[in-house]
């Protein structure tokens, strides 16, 4: 029997925990019910699944979403456990830990393969939430010789996995292709087709060396130093610090607490943009510099009050504040008042686009900001009114 090569390589998955002793049952966990619109419930289910929770679909006629807090995520598998009722038993499928494996093989860090697979899996949220299609993803990085590659492919054949690979060396990529064909393994070469297309377009043969290989001499470019400078600037400008430097920023983000200003700023900074973020707090005057900078640099962030309250409660708990601690920070009345205060600020500055971040990943919000930023920079048509995106 072929030994699993997982221990020899960079395998991003954990073994499933042993089943608990049925003779020692644990107390039944309390079920938390959240009520909201169908759209919000669907968004919540998708987010909970990505976090590894097991969700139970309520019976028809109720708008509550039941979350089992005791559910655990194992081996990278997304699990869905529907309520067994006559109405929805034919529409829901129970997910088990035996998800369909996807092997990602790379001769470098595996960033390209991992992000490509994650982007593709994003097209199957409807399956993960509604019908159930468990997936286990495993990343093997730094695979630079054929022997190690063949061990992984053999293991993929044993487990019935899909093999996705980014191998810059044409001979390695061809070996992977032929081995998968021989053993009947479904496979996808992510890097090969686009490399061949660019080579044909440029009329130049590719080097065949992975990024970071010893044979590659990549000098530090101006772009590299620009990104480093942007990250340093953004960190210093976080949370309204040094308002006198707002005019030096490429992008200025503003919104109430917990709308994701800091992680969004860092994400944009890594792309080379100097970003400052200014918090909007009810009863606290905003810095004058915010209204003196070019208004086409400023972007407002807003969020659904129910989602914001949930995030703030979690934040307060992480800081050690118990349920008995009284604070208006996460009280719904205060949350709505603060969002209304921010809305009035945005209304007074109609050239600031207002971006709704509820249910959006950081990458999605950043894509909207960069599209608007470059449209304005290139003097594309832009309504002079505040809009939500």
Automatic annotation (TrEMBL):
Organism: Gossypium raimondii
Pfam family, one: Kinase-PPPase
UniProt name for this protein: Pyruvate, phosphate dikinase regulatory protein, chloroplastic
Region (Disordered), start-end ranges: 16-37, 52-94
Keyword tRNA processing tagged: no
Keyword Nucleotide-binding set for record: yes
Keywords: Kinase, Nucleotide-binding, Serine/threonine-protein kinase, Transferase
Record InterPro entries: Kinase-pyrophosphorylase (IPR005177), PPDK_reg (IPR026565)
Recorded superkingdom: Eukaryota
């Amino acid at each position: 029997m072929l030994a699993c090569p997982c221990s020899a390589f960079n395998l991003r998955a954990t073994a499933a925990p042993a089943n608990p002793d049925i003779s020692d049952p644990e107390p039944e966990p309390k079920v938390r019910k959240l009520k909201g619109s169908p759209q919000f419930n669907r968004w919540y289910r998708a987010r909970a699944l990505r976090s590894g929770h097991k969700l139970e679909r309520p019976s028809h006629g109720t708008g509550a979403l039941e979350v089992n807090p005791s559910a655990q995520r194992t081996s990278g598998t997304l699990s869905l456990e529907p309520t067994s009722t006559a109405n929805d038993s034919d529409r829901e499928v129970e997910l088990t830990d035996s998800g369909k494996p996807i092997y990602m093989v790379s001769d470098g860090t595996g960033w390209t393969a991992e992000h490509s697979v994650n982007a593709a899996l994003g097209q199957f949220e409807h399956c993960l939430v509604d019908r159930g299609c468990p997936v286990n993803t495993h990343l093997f990085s730094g695979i630079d010789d054929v022997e190690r590659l063949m061990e992984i492919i053999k293991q993929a054949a044993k487990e019935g996995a899909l093999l996705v690979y980014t191998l810059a060396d044409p001979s390695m990529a061809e070996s992977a292709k032929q081995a998968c064909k021989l053993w009947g393994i479904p496979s996808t070469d992510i890097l090969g087709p686009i490399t061949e297309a660019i080579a044909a377009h440029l009329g130049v043969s590719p080097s065949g060396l992975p990024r970071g290989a010893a044979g590659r001499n990549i000098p530090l470019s101006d772009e590299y130093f620009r990104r480093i400078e942007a990250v340093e600037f953004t960190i210093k400008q976080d949370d309204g610090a040094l308002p006198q430097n707002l005019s030096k920023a490429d992008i200025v983000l503003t919104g109430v607490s917990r709308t994701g200003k800091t992680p969004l700023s860092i994400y944009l900074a890594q792309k080379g943009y100097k970003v400052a973020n200014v918090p909007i707090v009810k009863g606290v005057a905003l810095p004058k510099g915010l209204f003196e900078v070019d208004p086409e640099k400023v972007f407002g962030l807003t969020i659904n009050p129910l989602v914001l309250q949930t995030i703030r409660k979690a934040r307060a708990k992480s800081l050690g504040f118990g349920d008995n601690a009284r604070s208006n920070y996460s009280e719904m009345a205060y949350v709505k008042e603060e969002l209304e205060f921010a809305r009035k600020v945005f209304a007074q500055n109609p050239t600031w686009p207002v971006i709704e971040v509820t249910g959006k990943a950081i990458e999605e919000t950043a894509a909207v900001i960069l599209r608007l930023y470059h449209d304005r920079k290139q003097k594309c048509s832009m309504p002079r009114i505040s809009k939500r995106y």
